[in-house]
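User: I'm new to structure prediction. If I give you an amino acid sequence, what do you actually give back? Let's try with this one:
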Amino acid sequence: MSSEKLPPAYFGRYQVLEELGSGAMGVVYLCVDPRLARPVAIKVVKESEFMSPEERESYHARFRHEVEAAGRLNHADIVQIYDIGASYFVMEFLEGKTLAALLKSGAILSVGQLCSLILRVADAVDYAHRHGIVHRDIKPANIMVLNDGGVKVMDFGVARLESSNLTAVGTVVGSVRYMSPEQMMGEKVDGRADVFSLAAVAYELLTGRAPFPGKTITEVVSRVVHGVHVPPRQVDERLPEGLNAVFARAFAPRPAERYGRSLDFARDLHEAAHRVLQLEITHSGHESAPTRIEVPATVVKPQAPPRGPEREPERPPTYREGLPVFDSDLINPIPTQREALLALDSDPQAAKVFLDGNAVGQTPLSGIDVTFGRHVVRMEAAGRETVSTEVDLRPEAPLRALTVTLPVDSETLRPGKLVGFSPSVTPPRRMSGAVPAYPEEARGQGLEGSPVVEAWIGETGEVINVAVLDSAGPLLDRALVEAVERWRFTPAKLGGVPVSIRLTVQHLFRR
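Assistant: Good question. You get back a string of structure tokens that encode the predicted 3D arrangement of the chain. For your 511 residues, that looks like this:
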């Protein structure tokens, strides 16, 4: 008999179809949501077997807090979180490859396409920082490249759990290849740690090697904390000299000397690489060898210029050998030749507008010349939440008007906001609904148990969702879930405002 542990059949209401993969932080399963008939991905975060009951309870509470905060992020290039369980979370299912797998498989990308990718990731990271979320583990394995060429940054809010004091003493959490000095030293981190990690990703994309090479982890850590990286032009003399200064600032050992915002780094990167945007880089390195000194089969070659002014260079294909690539024109919102027109407006007006990470003015904007393809639009206004969305402009629909409502800042309490319980919260009180009865089907089997479920109670007092946290078997679980779904409450309130809250319910079934 195989000793392999079989995956569970369900997580709450979500039926497990197959395991997609596993890593140091957890296991990811492909599941189906029967209520909405859609595929979802569920990530189960690993727990240390050495935790005490008190540490485990604290871990679960912190897990919920971090993932709930990440779940409120609303950005076109950040993976969307749908639901949270005891030690798992439910997110949108993405079809594509991680950037790590894409590079390992031999992708051919131009410098311009790589700059476009970094700009999109930087925009997503910058948006999260503005909402108080630091990723802490930016690396190619946490960047998904979709089959249609889109980008999604994953695992916001989860990496922080792995850097807590519950980690085994003497271990370094995260990927040394991309980790900032303050993370390695166990110091407090902020968004500038993500800037360092994003720069390490960008360096690897442009050169095919790690910025801090070493034969041992000790050697790598020493180089990182002292800021001893290899300038990119030293790896390949065809890269512009200006890139050296950009990476020197991004890799500064002291956070105060580093870029304060990821977008500032990404814009300077694009500016410094402007003359070589057509250079093509072939990646065929191995993800499992992060600190090798040699360049792992990386070739940088210039693209041949067009033969005459009468013929324009052909646009790169959307796919190259089955691998999605990025349109390098996305990094320039004002092309030399009009292809499509984008009109932008917002409520309230006078919102700052960024197109693919570049500032283009304030709303209303009657028309911006853009290229065909996918673009990320971000709008900011004082006292309002920043909103990012994606638009796809195609030859058959070259004109697009986009209007955006900017909601009141998330720091402002509004009805229905999901809050954690605290002394300031008036708890919900059950007004109707019966205590679950012992199911007759279970009596003949002599079943007993104490399942635990979690109910999400909305601002009107209705139960929005019920998920099983601790199972006592399908029959007893179903009896508790069906009973709780019929309960009605007085709404929870914070400062007199009705809010949403999560309530844990446990029921002891005896024959």
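You can read the tokens as a compact description of the fold. Here is one thing that stands out. The chain has four domains: 1-93, 95-304+327-331, 333-405, 425-506.
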